[in-house]
Amino acid sequence: MKVLVVKLSSLGDIAQALPAVRRLAARTGAEIHWLVQPEYAALVGALSFVGKVLVWPRHGGWGERLAALRDLRGETYDAVLDLQGLLKSALPASLARRTGGGKTYGMPPPAAREHAWSLYRVRASLPADGRLHSADEMMAVVDAFAPPPAEGEAPLPPLEMRLPRPPQLPEEVTGPWVVLAPFSRWATKNWPPAKFAETAKRLRADWGGAFWILGGKGDAPAGERLAGTIGKGARNCCGEFSLLETCAVLKAADLLLAVDSGPLHWADALGTPAVSVYGATDPARTGPYGQLSGVVAAEGLSCRPCHKRTCGNASSPLACLQHVTPQAVAAVAAKAL
Questions:
Q1: Is-contact 81 143, C-beta < 8 A?
Q2: CA distance 230 to 6
């Protein structure tokens, strides 16, 4: 049996798809192919249960797109599962070749948007109120194709990935290796750097350790300022690592402190203890699937979760982030350590 999984992006969403795809592989024993955007191909290719990676460019010329279509049409699948639920994923899912009984599976509206649901032969059953973690929505698509056995299932083993050797800490460092991922593309997710710095200082006072700051190349200036504020043991690594190298660092670390971002969900998938601050987004919907107890969020605010990139609270801008204290985050982090 050969099954195509379509999950094109993003970094964190791909990580949250892993429990569902791993269950798919365990239940069916199928050869799993994964269609993904080119920037994530190496990451998906490092997963031990993925037999083949196909790329589907979101941007690029017609030559690149036609080459991707030829590769996609060069395989034949017993089932195609779209775990993205957007038009950009439903279109290539519908273009994949299927065996005579092969069907395309996906989510119903409103979980599937942009009329993507109209391209699925089978739609998963989801609660009408929509109150389901995104990882469970993807699991429902897997359930629609390969229902769980009546006798139950064993827990999934630790995730296996082919990762490069992680960098080594300097010999003089004593204490835990703490990684900070303080950056996202949403201002309403980003806990203030000063609060990250104070949290790191509190942990250093009790535990010592090293504090490495992850982010993209564009985050490097902010990462350098944050490292300077933390002081001893801090290192700005923004823009230094590939995605695979980032995962190697996350797997080797003792703790991750993060906002709702890709590194958070990959640390969770890799089994690294993670403490996260949530502002505009809802951890019940997009929290780290295996570590919701590590989420710290402001309580009693009627405006959160708003799921908006810009804050609409004129009387108290970004209250959802400002109300989360370093003391609270450091206390949760100490328990994790």
A1: no
A2: 41
Kindly state the average pLDDT of the residues 275-296: 97
Distance CA 234, CA 180 (A): 10
Q: State pLDDT tens for residues 45-60.
A: 999 999 999 999 988 7
65 and 95 Cβ atoms separated by less than 8 Å: no
Using the 8-state DSSP alphabet, how is residue 187 labeled? T
The count of other CB atoms within 10 Å of the CB of residue 224 is: 14
**Whole-number Å distance between alpha carbons of 212 and 233:** 8
DSSP alpha helix (H) spans, 111-257: 134-145, 193-207, 220-230, 243-252
Distance CA 98, CA 101 (A): 8
Residue 84 falls in which region: left (phi positive, over 0), alpha (psi -120 to 50) or beta: alpha
Do the Cβ atoms of 79 and 105 come closer than 8 Å?
Answer: yes
Looking at residue 252, its amino acid is A
**Mean local confidence (pLDDT), 5-34:** 98
User: Are residues 181 and 264 in contact, defined by beta-carbon separation less than 8 angstroms?
Assistant: yes
Whether the pTM exceeds 0.85: the reply is yes
pLDDT tens digits along 200-245: 999 999 999 999 999 999 999 999 999 999 999 999 999 999 999 9
Token match 């929290």: residue? 287
C-alpha distances (whole Å) from 54 to each of 7, 10, 29, 74, 158 are: 11, 16, 20, 11, 25
Nearest CA among 113, 8, 21 for reference residue 68: 8
Tell me the residue ranges of DSSP E strands in the chain. Answer: 2-6, 31-36, 50-55, 76-82, 97-106, 122-123, 177-181, 210-213, 234-236, 255-259, 274-278, 295-297
CB neighbour class for 204 (10 Å; exposed up to 12, middle 13-18, buried from 19): buried
